[in-house]
Amino acid sequence: MSIHRFERTQHIPASIQEVWDFMATPLNLPRITPPHMRFDILTPGLPETMYAGMLIAYRVRPLLGIPMVWLTEISQIREREYFVDEQRQGPYKLWHHQHLLIPSDTGVVMKDIVTYIPPLGPLGTLANALIIRNQLRQIFDYRHARIEAIFGKG
Predict the structure, then answer these.
(1) I need a labelling partner for 28 at 20 to 30 A (CA). Which of 48, 73, 91, 149 fits?
(2) How far apart are CA 81 and CA 24, in angstroms?
(3) How many CB atoms neighbour CB 89 within 10 A?
(4) Which of 22, 18, 72, 17 is nearest to 49 (CA)?
(5) Which domains does the chain have, with CATH numbers?
(6) What are phi and psi of 136, to 5 degrees?
(7) Cα separation of 108 and 126, whole Å?
(8) Which residues lie closer than 8 Å to 68 by C-beta, 6 or more apart?
(9) pTM score, whole prediction
(10) Distance (Å, rounded) from C-alpha 34 to C-alpha 127?
(11) What is the pLDDT of residues 31-78, one digit of tens each?
């Protein structure tokens, strides 16, 4: 079993409240997910703002268009500072994603820290080297570009 970590930092020229309001709205997630993943929220009647303990189910097609259901729990939240989502059902053996928002002189530094364990033991480690890590990079590159389009270049 190998534990992997993926980090991404983005500077956003907006107030902490503006960035928080956007990131804490579950219905904004499809706006920052690559279209090829065909991201569909399955949980009906999601509230406008997330809260600790909230479960969000969605269908995603991360590889070869094969659909899979992913269930995420917002396990921790501190308004305008951070939230953590953790996979409860899905493709990974472990998925722990920290979203940190740090005020700066020019806006907000948003930092993502993803700690994950691929499925399938040694095969998952190989898949991480060949596919998964690169796919995560592409997903976060897309998200970076979408957030720049929404808030401006940081």
Answers:
(1) 91
(2) 11
(3) 13
(4) 22
(5) 4-151 (3.30.530.20)
(6) -60, -45
(7) 36
(8) 59, 60, 61, 62, 90, 91
(9) 0.93
(10) 20
(11) 999 999 999 999 999 999 999 999 999 999 877 778 999 999 999 999
